[in-house]
Write a structure and sequence with these properties.
Layout (H helix, E strand, L loop, with lengths): L40 H15 L4 E6 L18 E2 L3 E3 L2 E7 L12 E5 L5 E5 L9 E7 L3 E5 L6 E5 L7 H5 L13 H9 L5 H7 L8 H11 L12 H29 L4 H8 L19 E5 L2 E5 L7
Helix pairs in contact: 1-6, 3-6, 5-6, 6-7
The chain binds zinc ion.
Length: about 325
């Protein structure tokens, strides 16, 4: 996996080299000042790649529901027995697990599936053993090959049944999402045009996710630094060349995180370790008061849209 081989847009791509083990170490450093454990797009994509291979074609034996998640499942779990897991796709931070009928079987919703979101603290792990669920394991998809388990201490995650990806509730949840960062249809011109319609600071516009998905806090900060853009600048004031630089910077930042995820997954044991690994290489994120790698001046921290922004006031211009 390399930066040139960017992830596909909501299409299954790539083969997973490994499975995910259930629990890993916490992200290192910056305890208290910045929260790095929230799964971001790269973590979700790495998770998708890791569960794709073992799950695809597996036959559903049962669904085990633990404590309530963000939304109810919306379907009788027993009614999903015997279906086969199709190719897992990602859109933004959602994963879509198609549940297909076995050959020749007639079902009321042949394009149905499960929409999964990891929320604030969720992680998915594939297990071949049948270890009983722990206190924070709130969903199991039991199959004839093993179990997909959602561990989610804060329970902002979700597993939601939908009759199809383009039908509600899935369509409603995905409808407001911005462009996929690696979608070739997202040209610099289109990105610039979308920014022109936003008066909010560029950092807040990136975090909102309705222009482009995937620019979580750490990636937004790093991309704005790489592009030399002050995070407080109104999005509509960004020129077309600077918008092109920002789009490149976002893609480069996310590609680096994906590379890191692919190469460190075994060591970190779960996708959450990724943001910690990425952060240890960050230029500005989590580095308030430390020297900017560009100019040596102090990196500054401010709060925008209730989130910490890290930037260099000298290298990043309005
Ligand atoms: Zn600087």
């Amino acid at each position: 996996m390399g930066a040139a081989k960017a992830p596909s847009v909501f299409l299954p791509a790539g083969r997973s080299p490994t499975g995910l083990a259930p629990v890993g170490p916490k992200a290192p450093g910056n305890a208290g000042s910045t929260r790095t454990s929230m799964p971001e797009l790269p973590e979700v994509e790495v998770t998708r790649r890791s569960i794709e291979q073992p799950l695809r074609g597996a036959r559903v034996l049962a669904l085990r529901l633990g404590k309530p998640l963000r939304w109810p499942l919306g379907h009788d779990p027993a009614g999903l027995q015997g279906l086969l897991v199709g190719a897992i796709a990602r859109r933004g931070k959602y994963l879509w697990l198609p549940l297909e009928p076995a050959a020749g079987a007639a079902v009321p919703h042949p394009r149905q599936g499960l929409l999964l979101h990891l929320g604030m603290s969720g992680s998915l792990a594939w297990r071949e053993d049948a270890l009983p669920p722990g206190a924070h394991d709130h969903f199991d998809l039991l199959t004839d090959r093993g179990t997909l388990r959602l561990t989610d201490p804060r329970r902002f995650g979700a597993v939601l049944w939908s009759p199809a990806l383009d039908a509600d509730p899935a369509a409603k949840l995905l409808g407001g999402l911005g462009a996929e960062p690696f979608d070739p249809a997202l040209t610099a011109e289109r990105f610039h045009a979308a920014l022109q319609r936003r008066g909010a600071p560029i950092k807040a516009v990136l975090l909102a996710g309705d222009v482009i998905v995937g620019a979580g806090n750490i990636y937004a900060c790093e991309a704005l630094f790489r592009a030399g853009i002050d995070p407080r600048l109104a999005a509509r004031r960004i020129s077309r060349p600077r918008a092109a630089r920002l789009l490149d910077a976002l893609r480069g930042t996310l590609a680096r995180a994906l590379d890191l995820g692919g190469s460190t997954l075994r060591d970190f044991r779960d996708a959450h370790g990724m943001s910690g690994a990425f952060q240890s290489q960050a230029a500005v994120y989590g580095r308030a008061g430390l020297p900017c790698p560009g100019c040596g001046g102090a990196v500054r921290r401010l709060v925008q849209a209730q989130r910490s922004t890290f930037f260099c006031p000298r290298c990043q211009r309005r």
